[in-house]
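Contributing new records

If you add data, match the layout below exactly. Sequence lines come first and carry their own label; structure lines follow with theirs. Keep one chain per record. Anything else will be rejected by the validation script.
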Amino acid sequence: MTSETEAPTIPLLTPYKMGNFNLSHRVVLAPLTRQRSYNNVPQPHAILYYSQRTSKGGLMISEATGVSDTAQGYQDTPGIWTKEQVEAWKLIVDAVHAKGGIFLCQIWHVGRVSKAEFQPNGQAPISSTDNPLEPRLKSNGIDLAEFTPPRRLRTDEIPSIVNDFRLAARNAIEAGFDGVEIHGAHGYLVDQFLKDQVNDRTDKYGGSLENRCRFALEIVEAVANEIGAERVGIRFSPFANYADCGDSNPKELGLYLANALNKYGILYCHMVEPRITAVEKNVECPHSLVPMRKAFNGIFLVAGGYDREDGNKAIVEDRADLVVYGRLFLANPDLPKRFKLNAPLNKYNRDTFYTSDPIVGYTDYPFLETQAS
């Protein structure tokens, strides 16, 4: 019998079998760049940060983690290409597993969203194109971010970048992660190949939809062959225009990718809602991820501006299997519990999203029990 005080189970908190993993609920921690991995090495304070957000049978995706020394574009983001980085991640992964969580590493390459100071020997960042990214306001709305004009990758160099993703995936498994999510979204390197407003290549990686998707699918295949397709997810944002990375026909792009992925039998496809067009923009939109959901044969994750009600609706209407939360999970380390009780949520503080402080805006958001007055 359910006690009077216990809230009825909501759709987001129903169990789900994700491949070989038994999830106790469908509330997923989004991959969130936090910029607190000094010198690109994960730090001990990340042990607390991730373990705070771990629930038994809960799925978490790590912050975006660089696949090589050319993958960086921001201060103090973690990598997973050196032994030191792998060893540092082990302690964090162990803490998540000790609390019964399932933990995937998001592996990324920023491509042209970088500048020479983040690159080995001060070289130009690499991309699908040599067209530069225009300067833009940073998240604080004051400072201007500037980017070094990129160098277009030669056709014969692309396999070595694919290999960087493969090795990063191998390293993630070595660090104890349960799998990886390939970052194919938000204007970074994979997205720079996918989107026709950036990709101006004339080789087999440019032009047609099939050619523009080739790089992403080669990474999927290499990573799946290395660690097993059942440990691989990928994230796309076909409708978004982060970092001047838009597409003339995002629906066609999303559908092509969803169908193409079926061949590899990977664990999941994670897509960002069309309403999230760029950083912090949540707009009314006629487009939907439902066609991609229907086209993809595997597990489908959605992200982008979800709250408790929206998330429950997505599950009930079968628009998603799992719902991914970023800012709400950042500010509420016990988000699944708060959803269960329909408790009030902490407000997030945008000003401390990307500060390098090991505590402030990182591990100091309160839990429900510590707020009881």
